[in-house]
């Protein structure tokens, strides 16, 4: 892809740091919600093609819960908070202290709580990014979906679809205790956002 | 029937044709899975269309499988190259859902319905009859077409399985 072929390791490192700061804040917010420490894996920044991105969450057919927010402002993009069904149940029973109805599917109330947790996390992720880069970034009202990972993430890749077959992914994983809550943040900035992000961080964006 | 069926995979923004086994694409959301089938020669083809029109493409090298207006003619050509008879070819499609509902959504938000519309226009332009479809909704689908019968199998998390 034209846009990324000249990305040097240095620029990948900058993006990794951007992801790190956002996720660090979100981990703190989650930790406060849960009242227990939350670990965070060092974020991965990767240039992946569409197939590889869905592989990251276990394959295109894998069932996931996803909170999706469209990021608007100076550096638009798509933000996903993705949980496996088990992680979603764990998160709800801990955070909201909800006695789960126990059915195969989550109830309306439980879904709404999950959406709100995603909203809080994504909000803290974004606001730290915005502080760090001095760019305005604000989330749209979150939308929650439970479906095949491919169908959900495919949606986040539309802006990239116009430009090529790859997307840049900033991917962070949260861990609580023994892997009990494993959630992933996917930040997929729109292609035109990269020059702005680099510029705001003082990194020259001149195709070298 | 052969037990060990060949499965030909079609990725996102990809297309393929085959003469035996199944052709499958997984995780269709707003994307459309479009199939063409020649019941006489038992040849099938499938495209995983991601965007409605190649006019909005900003890439240097166009991936023709990605756009409805370019993928449909290409898929037809690939089938004809295998020996399919043009007048017998029929189309089916699935997908084109709206995964997330937003109030006051922009055009991007209704990409699913636009993909469906564009696929229909592309089929009309080529005079290929659309004999079945399962489009719209707000859920993801995985689809498979059987090369021996032309039956399109659709699986979804929320709505179970169906056949077209």
Automatic annotation (TrEMBL), chain A:
Matching SUPFAM superfamilies: CheC-like
UniProt-listed GO biological process terms: chemotaxis
Residue ranges constituting the CheC-like protein domain according to the UniProt record: 12-45, 109-144
Entry's Gene Ontology molecular function annotations: hydrolase activity
Key words of the record: Chemotaxis, Hydrolase
Alphabetical list of InterPro entries matching this protein: CheC (IPR007597), CheC-like_sf (IPR028976), CheZ_family_phosphatases (IPR050992)
Pfam name, any one: CheC
Superkingdom of origin: Bacteria
Identification of the protein by name: Chemotaxis protein CheC
UniProtKB/TrEMBL annotation, chain B:
GO molecular function: protein-glutamine glutaminase activity
Pfam families: CheD (PF03975)
E.C. number(s) listed in UniProt: 3.5.1.44
Catalytic activity: L-glutaminyl-[protein] + H2O = L-glutamyl-[protein] + NH4(+)
SUPFAM superfamilies on file: CNF1/YfiH-like putative cysteine hydrolases
Biological-process GO terms, alphabetical: chemotaxis
Gene3D superfamilies given in the database record: 3.30.1330.200
Keywords of the record: Chemotaxis, Hydrolase
InterPro entries on file: CheD-like_sf, Chemorcpt_Glu_NH3ase_CheD, Cytotoxic_necrot_fac-like_cat
Family in the record: Belongs to the CheD family.
Record function comment: Probably deamidates glutamine residues to glutamate on methyl-accepting chemotaxis receptors (MCPs), playing an important role in chemotaxis.
Protein name in UniProt: Probable chemoreceptor glutamine deamidase CheD
Species whose genome carries this gene: Paenibacillus agri
């Amino acid at each position: 892809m034209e846009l990324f072929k000249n990305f040097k390791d240095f620029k990948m490192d900058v993006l990794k740091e951007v992801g790190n700061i956002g996720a660090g804040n979100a981990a703190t917010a989650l930790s406060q919600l849960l009242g227990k420490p939350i670990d965070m894996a060092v974020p991965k920044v990767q240039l992946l093609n569409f197939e590889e991105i869905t592989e990251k969450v276990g394959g295109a057919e894998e069932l996931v819960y996803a909170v999706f927010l469209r990021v608007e402002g100076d550096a638009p993009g798509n933000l996903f908070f993705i949980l496996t069904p088990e992680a979603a149940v764990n998160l709800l029973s801990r955070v909201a202290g909800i006695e789960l109805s126990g059915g195969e599917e989550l109830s309306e109330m439980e879904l709404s709580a999950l959406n709100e947790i995603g909203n809080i996390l994504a909000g803290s992720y974004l606001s730290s990014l915005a502080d760090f880069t001095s760019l305005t970034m604000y989330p749209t009202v979150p939308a929650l979906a439970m479906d095949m990972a491919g169908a959900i993430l495919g949606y986040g890749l539309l802006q990239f679809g116009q430009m090529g077959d790859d997307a840049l992914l900033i991917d962070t994983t949260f861990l609580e205790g023994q892997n009990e809550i494993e959630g992933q943040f996917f930040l997929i900035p729109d292609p035109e956002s990269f020059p702005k992000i680099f510029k705001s961080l003082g990194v020259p964006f001149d195709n070298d | 029937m052969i037990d060990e069926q060949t499965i030909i995979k079609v990725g996102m923004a990809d297309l393929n044709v085959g003469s035996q086994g199944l052709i499958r694409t997984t995780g269709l959301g707003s994307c459309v899975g479009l199939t063409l089938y020649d019941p006489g020669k038992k040849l099938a083809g499938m495209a995983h269309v991601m965007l409605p029109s190649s006019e909005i493409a900003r890439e240097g090298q166009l991936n023709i499988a990605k756009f409805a207006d370019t993928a449909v003619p290409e898929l037809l050509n690939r089938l004809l190259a295998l020996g399919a008879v043009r007048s017998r070819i029929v189309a089916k499609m699935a997908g084109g859902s709206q995964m997330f509902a937003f109030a006051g959504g922009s055009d991007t938000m209704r990409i699913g319905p636009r993909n469906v519309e564009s696929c229909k226009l592309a089929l009309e332009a080529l005079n290929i009859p659309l004999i079945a479809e399962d489009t719209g909704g707000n859920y993801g689908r995985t689809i498979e077409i059987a090369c021996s019968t032309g039956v399109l199998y659709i699986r979804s998390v929320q709505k179970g399985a169906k056949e077209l």
